[in-house]
Amino acid sequence: MVDTLFYLFATLTLVSALLVVVNRKPVNSVVAMIVTIVGVAANLFLLDAPFLATLLIMVYAGAVIVLFLFVIMLMDPDVPALKRGWFGTALLGVVFFALCAAGTVWLFGFSGAVPVIAAPTENMPAALAYSNDATAFGWPLFTKYVVLVEASALLLLAAMVAVFMLHSRRRGNEESCGCCCKK
Amino acid sequence: MTLSHFLVLAGLLFGIGLTGAVVRRSVLVVYMSLEMMLTASMLALVAFSKYCNLMDGAVFCFFIITIAAAEVAVGLALIVSLFRKRKTVDLDDLQSLKN
Could A17 and B17 be called an inter-chain contact, meaning their C-beta atoms sit closer than 8 Å? Predict the structure, then answer.
């Protein structure tokens, strides 16, 4: 049963990920990306991480992808016509992906470098062992990785200030920088 | 299912994202491919975390989500201001550094 679910969700994820890359309209890519994220979240459910799966759906499919949709709606970019040499680019992409896929499947599937059996569950402190409830995240997050939590708070603050500065400029400044950007 | 199933899935997803980031010419699709690579790395981290029976990989996913959110906010703001100035999102048209 679980195997069937895994193969179902893996197929869903990979097919919709291919659709993201292959589609020519950006809106179709965004919708396929939502399906990809839901597939990855389903795989996280299979890995006993329901909290992370919920977080992934809420943050990625709920905020990030909707932000993409807003930006596409704001810009409304026209779908470009197929340029000369698109077939060579597509062929290059197929060859590149085939090399990546062959390396991945050999390394993780058949080379024997990945251990088959899971690590033993005893002689592990209970606070550090893998668990599927949300309270298990709090202990490492605020003891072992507290510096990283502070750093990511600083990163979010810096991103917020940067976006604010980027968009709070007056319109008139755009004409005055003609030295650097050629029309 | 073993660890290698999830690792192969994450690696294939990462490969699709890498191909999209290299091959596609639209800035928005390149950004979505970057997001896809981050998601694939999250899947691999949780799989390692589950099979090593340690919480650390799952905790690291928080930081990946944080970095992805910050990156998308700044990147989409840059794309919007680029589109206002140059009226295009095609990477082939953005070659003013080339000559």
Answer: yes
Distance CA B58, CA A167 (A): 35
Record: contact A140-B59, CB cut-off 8 A: yes
- Residue-wise pLDDT for A7-58, tens only, equals 999 999 999 999 999 988 889 999 999 999 999 999 999 998 999 999 999 9
- ipTM attached to this prediction: 0.91
Per-residue pLDDT of B35-45, as tens digits, reads 999 999 999 99
Give the mean pLDDT of chain A.
85
Residue A21 belongs to some domain of the structure: yes
Q: Is A113 exposed, middle or buried (0-12, 13-18, 19+ CB in 10 A)?
A: exposed
Cβ of A105 under 8 Å from any chain B Cβ? yes
Residue among B32, B85, B90 whose CB faces A20 most closely: B32
CA B95 to chain CA centroid, nearest Å: 23
Interface contact B30, partner A, CB < 8 A: no
Which of A53-62, A79-88, A172-181, B89-98 tops mean pLDDT? A53-62
Q: CA-to-CA distance for B57 and A148, rounded, in angstroms?
A: 14
In a domain? residue A53: yes
pTM, rounded to two decimals: 0.88
| Residue at B38 is within a domain | yes
CATH code, domain with B43? 1.10.287.3510
Q: Do B35 and A60 touch (CB under 8 A)?
A: yes
Contacts with B89 from chain A: Cβ below 8 Å: 75, 77
Give Cα separations from A136 to A139, A179, B54, B56 (angstroms). Answer: 6, 55, 11, 10
